[in-house]
């Protein structure tokens, strides 16, 4: 199985702060991966290490089928769009294309020009005179023109209004369908994940908390609703990720498959990806990683 990003014992320390620690994961190639987590969780750090823009303090990271991050082979295969899209604001878009062409061995200029024409972004306009959404589209166009195997985007949706966000993700998915490129993007917009991602990674406090295919994660959890006064007894025997109680009713988000019967007097409901991800983000001590089943508070190494 080819991997998009493969990390082993990866860590990055700034002074006394571990921005990322003991990070081990293996994200298979060919997915659209959503990387989520609260502010300061370590998302940018993980993406920068994968893009080869930062050096690990511990461990190692390989990208695009096992190339050492930051190596010449990896730089050829990986395109990175930073949080503040690194565009020269005083340059016209056409000059940005020229810069891209001269810096990259693989470069599809025709494709970039066609894409910008489709988007109605004039080549002669200075980057600084474009809207935030147009700038993000230019950054995505430049990244795709590199013909990458792995496209890494750090919060590409941050500056975009809901319509621009929708258009941007549609453009990204079209590119994925056309090229089969692997995409890893960080976002705070958890609601977008369901529509766009087929693989999810949650980071918290510099550690990987959740990693897995969206379908498996959803299939591997359900919600139980039942009487609050019996919730403690039920929760005692189940791997509960999140326990919410409202008046007389309890909602337990539980790890377990369709085969697991609901306790007598309780109803079982499927869970959506957004609800699942938010539950884990609210319960940092719970984790779900590839390997043997983990319950609340158990961290399972990849
Ligand atoms: N250059 C740096 N120098 C010192 N500390 C840093 C540096 N970069 C990141 N950190 C620290 O590392 C931790 C993780 O930061 P990081 O930017 O990776 O988080 P993030 O999940 O991307 O956050 P956000 O969602 O706010 O963008 C934070 O505590 C941050 O303060």
From TrEMBL:
Keywords: ATP-binding, Nucleotide-binding, Transport. InterPro entries: AAA+_ATPase (IPR003593), ABC_transporter-like_ATP-bd (IPR003439), ABC_Transporter_VariousFunc (IPR051782), P-loop_NTPase (IPR027417). The keyword Phosphoprotein does not apply. It comes from Actinomadura nitritigenes. It comes from the Bacteria. This is ABC transporter ATP-binding protein. Residues 5-230 form the ABC transporter domain. One of its GO terms (molecular function) is ATP binding. CDD domains: ABC_DR_subfamily_A.
């Amino acid at each position: 199985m080819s991997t998009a990003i493969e990390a082993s014992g990866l860590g990055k320390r700034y002074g006394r702060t571990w921005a990322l620690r003991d990070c081990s994961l293996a994200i298979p190639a060919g997915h659209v991966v959503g990387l989520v987590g609260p502010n300061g969780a370590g998302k940018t750090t993980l993406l920068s290490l994968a893009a080869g823009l930062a050096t690990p303090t511990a461990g190692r990271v390989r990208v695009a089928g096992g190339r050492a991050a930051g190596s010449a082979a990896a730089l050829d295969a990986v395109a990175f769009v930073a949080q503040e899209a690194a565009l020269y604001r005083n340059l016209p878009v056409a000059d940005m294309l020229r810069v891209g062409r001269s810096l990259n061995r693989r470069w599809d200029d025709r494709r970039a020009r066609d894409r910008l024409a489709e988007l109605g972004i004039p080549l002669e306009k200075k980057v600084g005179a474009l809207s935030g959404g147009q700038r993000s589209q230019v950054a995505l166009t430049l990244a795709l023109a590199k013909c990458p195997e792995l496209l890494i985007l750090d919060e590409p949706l941050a500056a975009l209004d809901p319509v621009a966000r929708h258009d941007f993700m549609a453009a990204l998915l079209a590119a994925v369908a056309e090229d089969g490129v692997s995409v890893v993007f960080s976002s705070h917009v958890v609601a977008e994940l369901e529509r766009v991602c087929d693989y999810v990674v949650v980071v918290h406090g510099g550690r990987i908390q959740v990693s897995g295919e969206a379908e498996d994660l959803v299939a591997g959890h359900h919600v139980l609703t039942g009487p609050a006064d019996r919730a403690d007894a039920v929760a005692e025997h189940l791997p509960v990720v999140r326990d919410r109680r409202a008046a007389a009713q309890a909602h337990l988000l539980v790890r377990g498959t369709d085969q697991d019967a609901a306790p007598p007097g309780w109803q079982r409901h499927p869970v959506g990806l957004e609800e699942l991800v938010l539950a884990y983000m609210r319960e940092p001590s719970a984790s779900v990683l590839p390997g043997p089943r983990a319950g609340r508070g158990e961290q399972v190494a990849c």
